[in-house]
C-alpha cells in the first residue's frame, strides 16, 4: 500500500469534525476547518483556506494530468489525430475558432488560492457533418478510440438516457423545445471525455436532421455553422516545478473529504 493510500485510509477513519464558522458582522462564510487525530495521537486541525486545489477538484486527478509544460503538446496531439481520422472518414476541412489560453486558478472555493492552472484549446470546427445517426455513431467510435488511447476514456453524451431518466425537468425541456428526447431524432449531440483532470469536448450539429425546419431557420439567424463537428481540449494542472510544493501543501488534508465550497471563486 502506498504512503498516500495508507495515510488516506488512516485519516479518513479518524476525522472528527468539519466545521464551517461565520464571520460575525460581515455575513461572509469563513473557511471551514476539519480536525483529526494523527498517527502520533495528536489532534490536528486544518483550515481549508490552505487547500492547494479547488474544492471541486480531485487532487489525485490533478497529479495524474499532463504537467503544464506538456499540456499544449498533448492537446495538439489528440486534436490533430482526431481531426485527421475524421477527415479521412468524412472528407472534412477544419478551421480554428477562438483563442487558446492559460487561466490561473484564482481561488480554491474557501477564500484561499489554488496552485493549479487551466488550459483551454481553440475550438476546431469542421466545414460539414454527415446527417445519419450511423455516421454520428461512427464519429463517436473514432473519438472514443483516440480519447481512450490518450487516457481520457470514452465520450459521455449529454444528455444521455440515464441523465434524462433522473432529471424529469430536463426530459420535459427537450420534449417541449425539440419534440423528442430520442438522440437519433435530435439535430445536435454534445459530449465530453474526462479523466485525469483533462477533457475533450465534442459537439455535432446538422440542422437537416430536424424535419420541421425550425433548426435551419434558427441557425440562419444566428450565423452559427449549421452542419459541423466541433472539438476542443482542456486540462487543469500544475507546472512541473510546483508538483513537490503541491504535494507538501496537500499532505495535511490527505484522507479528508473536501467540504462544500464557501466562496464563489
Automatic annotation (TrEMBL):
Protein name, entry field: Uncharacterized protein
Signal peptide bounds: 1-31
Source domain of life is Bacteria
The protein's UniProt keywords, in alphabetical order, are: Signal
| Species in which this protein is naturally found | Arthrobacter psychrolactophilus
Amino acid at each position: 500500500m502506498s504512503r498516500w493510500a495508507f495515510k488516506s485510509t488512516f485519516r479518513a477513519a479518524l476525522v472528527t469534525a468539519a466545521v464551517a464558522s461565520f464571520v460575525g458582522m460581515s455575513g461572509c462564510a469563513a473557511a471551514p476547518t476539519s480536525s483529526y487525530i494523527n498517527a502520533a495521537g495528536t489532534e490536528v486541525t486544518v483550515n481549508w483556506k490552505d487547500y492547494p486545489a479547488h474544492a471541486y477538484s480531485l487532487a489525485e486527478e490533478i497529479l495524474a494530468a499532463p504537467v503544464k509544460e506538456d499540456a499544449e503538446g498533448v492537446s495538439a496531439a489528440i486534436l490533430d489525430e482526431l481531426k485527421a481520422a475524421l477527415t479521412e472518414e468524412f472528407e472534412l476541412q477544419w478551421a480554428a475558432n477562438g483563442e487558446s489560453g492559460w487561466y490561473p486558478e484564482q481561488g480554491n472555493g474557501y477564500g484561499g488560492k489554488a496552485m493549479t492552472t487551466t488550459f483551454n484549446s481553440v475550438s476546431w470546427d469542421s466545414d460539414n457533418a454527415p446527417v445519419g445517426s450511423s455516421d454520428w455513431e461512427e464519429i463517436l467510435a473514432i473519438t472514443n478510440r483516440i480519447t481512450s488511447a490518450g487516457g481520457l476514456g470514452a465520450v459521455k453524451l449529454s444528455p444521455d438516457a440515464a441523465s434524462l431518466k433522473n432529471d424529469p425537468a430536463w426530459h420535459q425541456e427537450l420534449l417541449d423545445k425539440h419534440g423528442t428526447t430520442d438522440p437519433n431524432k435530435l439535430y445536435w449531440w454534445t459530449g465530453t471525455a474526462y479523466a485525469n483532470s483533462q477533457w475533450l469536448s465534442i459537439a455535432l450539429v446538422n440542422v437537416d436532421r430536424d424535419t420541421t425546419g425550425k433548426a435551419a431557420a434558427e441557425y440562419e439567424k444566428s450565423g452559427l455553422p449549421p452542419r459541423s463537428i466541433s472539438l476542443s481540449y482542456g486540462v487543469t494542472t500544475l507546472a512541473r516545478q510546483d508538483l513537490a510544493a503541491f504535494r507538501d501543501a496537500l499532505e495535511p488534508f490527505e484522507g479528508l473529504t473536501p467540504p462544500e465550497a464557501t466562496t464563489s471563486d
